[in-house]
Amino acid sequence: DTAVSQTPKYLVTQMGNDKSIKCEQNLGHDTMYWYKQDSKKFLKIMFSYNNKELIINETVPNRFSPKSPDKAHLNLHINSLELGDSAVYFCASSLRRAGGSNEQFFGPGTRLTVL
Amino acid sequence: QKEVEQDPGPLSVPEGAIVSLNCTYSNSAFQYFMWYRQYSRKGPELLMYTYSSGNKEDGRFTAQVDKSSKYISLFIRDSQPSDSATYLCAMSKWGQAGTALIFGKGTTLSVSS
């Protein structure tokens, strides 16, 4: 199946731990994103990468560190997890087209719960 | 004022009704307008995509953009129980690759049979 996939789907961990979320897309896209959806379902951009280069780094604590080993993968590492980090994290991807269109395709999400 | 405003609902309609979902925005630089559908505990699914002002139709769905009023709409004709979901409007400026989508808070729709 062509898609954006994320692992794990669920992540339950203790405060202070370090965890990683992985994302892969096989759509042939050149741009990938991380979004955070809070408890009120509001989706907000965290990071974006184009061809492995960081494009957007929103006001996110530096405990969050994205890494893009290649165009098809974008991982998110979180250090020293806090209660407020509990949310659903979505990976997305898009293809840069002439005209600047910005259709983004989302993965299924990783539901992170920090206890 | 938030960049994108969307009434969260919930909106409840009977099967077969015409549904109208709307968003307003404040940033005149937005050029691309999208509607996503999100089922519970799933990722957002791209439904409709429009560039600048105008209408676009796809089956039972019609997207409208009025840039002069900074107002976008999604119409669903002959609504079905399977349309029950949260609908998110999203928009972005013209720009380099990696430009973020700015989302509304979503409207929760329930279609009863």
Structure, explained:
By secondary structure, chain A is an all-beta fold. Helix content of chain A is 0%, strand content 55%. In chain A, the strands form two sheets. In chain A, strands 2, 4, 5, 6, 9, 10 and 11 form a seven-stranded mixed β-sheet that branches. Chain A has a four-stranded antiparallel β-sheet with strand order 1-3-8-7, with no helix packed on it. Chain A is globular and about 45 Å long. The N and C termini of chain A lie far apart (34 Å). The model of chain A has no long low-confidence stretch (mean pLDDT 92). Chain B is mostly beta strands and 113 residues long. Helices cover 0% and strands 56% of the residues of chain B. Chain B has no helices and eleven strands. In chain B, the strands form two sheets. In chain B, strands 2, 4, 5, 9, 10 and 11 form a six-stranded mixed β-sheet that branches. The mean pLDDT of chain B is 93. Classes of the chains: A mainly beta (115), B mainly beta (113). Chains A and B meet through strand 5 and strand 10 of A and strand 4, strand 5, strand 9 and strand 10 of B.
